[in-house]
């Protein structure tokens, strides 16, 4: 995210604090990952590509934020040589999620 121009204030916390923060941010366990960020009023969970976060901030949808559940190989920060699994960035809403961007 820093390479994309975002200012990052990273903090390490224990698992219990992370789980409490993600739950407080509106992220259910099945939509969670290992990183949680707050960006201009939105929550960004997991290995969300910077371009998706930039689009979120440009479009400003009525939503809680974005998530890439789990840690899919090939997502930002999860590079594993040539292995790239397809994954979706999901838009978090008060109701059902929807696909925000597909990554092949």
Summarize the structure.
The chain is about 20% helix and about 25% strand. It is built from two helices and five strands; from the N terminus they run αββαβββ. It has helices at about 15-25, 50-60, and strands spanning about 35-40, 40-45, 65-70, 85-90, 100-104.
Structure description:
The chain is of the alpha+beta class and 104 residues long. It has one domain (15-103). Helices cover 19% and strands 24% of the residues. It is built from two helices and five strands. A five-stranded mixed sheet has the order 1-2-3-4-5, with helices on both faces. A hairpin with a 2-residue loop joins strand 1 (36-39) and strand 2 (42-46). It is globular. It starts with 14 loop residues before the first helix and ends with a strand.
Describe this protein with a few key phrases.
single chain; 104 residues; alpha+beta; 5-stranded mixed β-sheet; 2 helices; 5 strands; 19% helix; 24% strand; globular
Give the N-terminus to C-terminus distance in angstroms.
20 Å
User: Total helix count?
Assistant: 2
Mean pLDDT: 86
The class by helix and strand makeup works out as alpha+beta
Q: How many E strands?
A: 5
In helices, the fraction of residues equals 10-25%
Shape: globular
Which consecutive residue ranges, at least 5 long each, have pLDDT under 50?
none
Radius of gyration from CA coordinates: 13 Å
Strand content: 15-25%
How many domains, in number, for the residues? 1
Strand arrangement across the biggest beta sheet: 1-2-3-4-5
* Element string (H = helix, E = strand): HEEHEEE
Largest sheet: 5 strands, mixed
């Amino acid at each position: 995210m820093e390479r994309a121009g975002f200012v990052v204030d990273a903090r390490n916390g224990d698992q219990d604090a992370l789980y409490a923060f993600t739950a407080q941010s509106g992220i259910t366990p099945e939509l969670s990952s290992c990183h949680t960020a707050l960006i201009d009023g939105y929550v960004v969970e997991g290995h969300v590509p910077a371009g998706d976060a930039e689009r979120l901030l440009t479009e400003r949808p009525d939503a809680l934020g974005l998530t890439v559940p789990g840690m899919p190989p090939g997502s930002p920060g999860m590079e594993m040589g040539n292995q790239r699994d397809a994954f979706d960035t999901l838009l978090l809403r008060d109701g059902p999620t929807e696909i925000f961007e597909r990554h092949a």
